[in-house]
Amino acid sequence: MSTISLCMIVKNEEEVLANCLSSVKDICDEIIIVDTGSTDKTKEIAEQFTEHILDFEWIDDFSAARNFSFSQATKDFILWLDADDIFLPEDQEKLKKLKDTLDESVDAVSMRYVIARDAYDNPSIHFRRNRLVKRSKNFKWIGPVHEYLEVGGNILSSDISVEHKKDMKKASEMNSKRNLRIYEKRIKNGDNFSPRDLFYYANELRDHGQYQKAIIYYNEFLSGKKGWIEDNISACTYSADCHKKSGEKDEEVDALLKTLRYDAPRPEPCCRIGDHFKENKAFQTAIFWYNLATILKKDTGGFQNESYSTWYPHLQLCVCHWELGNVKRSVEHNNIAKQYQPNNIQVLFNDEFFNHIIKNKEEG
Which InterPro entries does this chain map to (predicted)? Predict the structure, then answer.
């Protein structure tokens, strides 16, 4: 059986830390908490779970803090979490089983990171992260902000999920201000930006409504041709967001089509291209793009919004087929959308509408 060190960096996490640690305390053999300057009860809460609590002076560098936490580990594998992450009971059991059966040849284990669920408790937004790594490999965190764990070797893709449980809007606003400040400080200092830095700086600009400036940095990132495929595709879709916010509809579609340069089509760009043709009443062309979104593979490891491969394209196909006079296909697609979203207002409206049509036909 392998042993696990949990390594975390925290600051002012009194609202969520206990839930996080409670979900793993019976699985991890060692819990290491590195505090970067809490002024609330974070450290007192951590003391209920571990004696390994260390202070780290914050230097605007997440990787430095995470690498310090990793350096304190003594067990076979290192698990990392943020304070607003938890393992649900089902995933706790999966992690226990993995710990008991993990082959020594495995260097890292990736897990699905679920950051949002829909009204029916299905994962709606998620992507994969390397969460458990062999300590002897001495893997390092890279980047002062939007850091990533650089791993290699034999990576196991598990069916375990980590759940993000913080108020997403509140966390995004707080983190975004901090992150943008760090990037702008680096620019002022004359730091060279890696491709990843360019991508995430553009994301921060987009989040702050600086759309034209964000487009410039997305284009600079893409022109370097050194980005991860999933980041390339995201850069195109995010750039499309910026064009849309700026009222540049043609440029929005151009950015979405650019995703096809990097890999097979993905559901979100397909649906949004379909939206463009639907808005322009080119329903047959829109149908092509929506249909494509429903048949594409889902798990690419990158950011995934499940709506674009499940209920959303079918709801739009319902409209398109109705506009082309194909009532039967329209009803079929609304019924499929209903399987995913039984209480969706538009789906229910369509249901009532179709029932009214059918009733009038029978009475006529």
Answer: Glyco_trans_2-like, Nucleotide-diphossugar_trans, TPR-like_helical_dom_sf
**CB-count exposure of residue 290 (10 Å: 0-12, 13-18, 19+):** buried
Supply the pLDDT for residue 355.
87
Determine the residue type at 57: E
- The 8-class DSSP code of residue 194 comes to P
CB 217 within 8 A of CB 205: yes
Judge whether residue 67 has pLDDT over 70: yes
Q: What CA–CA distance (Å, rounded) separates 185 from 227? A: 23
The arithmetic mean of pLDDT across residues 106-119, rounded, is 95
Q: Could you identify the residue written with the tokens 């829109």?
A: 286
List, in order, residues 6 or more apart from 48 with CB less than 8 Å away: 18, 21
Cβ pair 336, 295 in contact under 8 A: no
Give the pLDDT confidence score for residue 300 in this predicted structure: 72
Rounded to an integer, what distance in angstroms lies between the CA atom of residue 325 and that of residue 284?
12
- Condensed to tens digits (0 to 9), the pLDDT of residues 151-162 reads 999 999 999 999
**pTM of the predicted model over 0.85:** yes
C-alpha 342/C-alpha 353 separation (Å) is 15
User: What are the chain's domains?
Assistant: 4-166 (3.90.550.10), 192-263 (1.25.40.10), 267-364 (1.25.40.10)
| Inter-CA distances, 133 with 22, 52, 126, 154, 191, Å | 21, 20, 20, 10, 30
β-bridge partners, 109 = 132, 156
pLDDT at 303: 83
